[in-house]
Automatic annotation (TrEMBL):
The keyword Metal-binding does not apply. Belongs to the CmpA/NrtA family. Pfam families: NMT1_2. Its main location: membrane. This is CmpA/NrtA family ABC transporter substrate-binding protein. InterPro entries: NrtA/CpmA_ABC-bd_dom (IPR044527), TAT_signal (IPR006311). It comes from Sphingorhabdus arenilitoris. It is found in: Endomembrane system. Residues 1-19 form the signal peptide. Keywords: Cell inner membrane, Cell membrane, Membrane, Signal, Transport.
Amino acid sequence: MKSNRRNFLLLAACSLAIAACGSGSDKPAGEKVTAAKVDGAIEKPALKLGFIKLTDMAPLAIAKEKGFFAEEGLNVTLEPQANWKVLLDGVIGGQLDGAHMLAGQPLAATIGYGTKADLIAPLSLDLNGNAITLSNAVYSKIEPTLKKGADGKVEHPISAAALKPVIAEYKASGKTFKMGMVFPVSTHNYELRYWLAAGGVNPGYYTPGDVGGTVGAEAQLSVTPPPQMPATMEAGTIDGYCVGEPWNQAAVQKKIGVPVITDDQIWKKNPEKVLGLKKEFADKYPATTAALLRAIIKAQQWLDADNGKNRAEAVKILAQPNYVGADPAVIGASMTGKFTFAPGDTRDAPDFNIFFRDFAGYPYYSDAVWYLTQMRRWGQIAEDKDDQWYFDTAKSVYRPDLYLAAANKLAADGVIPKESIPDTDGYKGEQSGFIDGVTYNGKAPNAYLAKFTIGLKKGQTVSAAGVK
């Protein structure tokens, strides 16, 4: 009997190891993701979660203010953080139990880029939510060249190709064209780079040990914390930036800049923030993790309910100083299905903030693979990796099994619709909707990288001297 039990445990352990590491085949095997088995009482009811003052932290604020954390037996404190590095260090060091985190942060930490730690992303907080804003001075140079519609308004999306004469003018006068983003492994960095490269502007490459990413750059990118973006641009330190809301709308309100493109125009329904946890936390407190996810999923559903009927209330909550702390009008300018590009130019933007619909909360492996391809494209991953490495890394960090454990329980209890939970192998399939027309298949990362004109190719590395 003991021998049989031992054999069963060994077989189970081997099965789990194979599932965790991948089959070694060229592509993921395609099995449906199954929910983790979670049972028992909450192990740690009092939690502290970190966030940055951005509107896409909304699921955490709503879970707190609407009582969803309390319903799940959790007493959660939400604590704003000074910047993304402080937030990351807080989770790794245990001062925070989890956080509203950049999608690239758990991946970068796991592969040892910047800081080494085993982090996971068991839930995606939202889709879209960022924009790119240019200073008035720069926009005034490109505006006459932009195509106008019958109403006299500029047609969108605006290509970064419009910046090429400005960059050339700067170079001729000995100046550097500079733009801000929030963190080296942020969605904002990759979206800004993607937009620039799609318009024929090289945003530069990273070398090992270098977090500047400026080798060969025609437009130089640097890190600025989100709330400081408008003031930094107004001071002339940067000529534009990519950031989440409400900091693009703040530039419009202050009349210091013009948003030129939203991120859903760069990549339709792109993944944005995640809930980041230490793997050790989820392993040690599985019932707590499941309860935490259930509360956030409830909040996500509330945010998207009935075509956004709750968004006005959400704006009031987010405007509180303990959350985003910005003018409700500024937050509402992008949070309520509209987006203001300039005074008098407000356009419908129903997909700008998605929290629940379109499977927004599900942490797809293919989303993780996309971030990893961009790390490789710009040199943050210094050398080639085979496809299997991308699959295995994605599977070790993005945890749809934990998401399903929480979501399936909510569906069984009638809290969320069963059809709001995808039945998938964790990959979205081939995706279009990119500004450059390039399609993306998460099951073919190296083939995807080969499609780009600007970006590292197979066998290429970067040094201070350039790409070789």
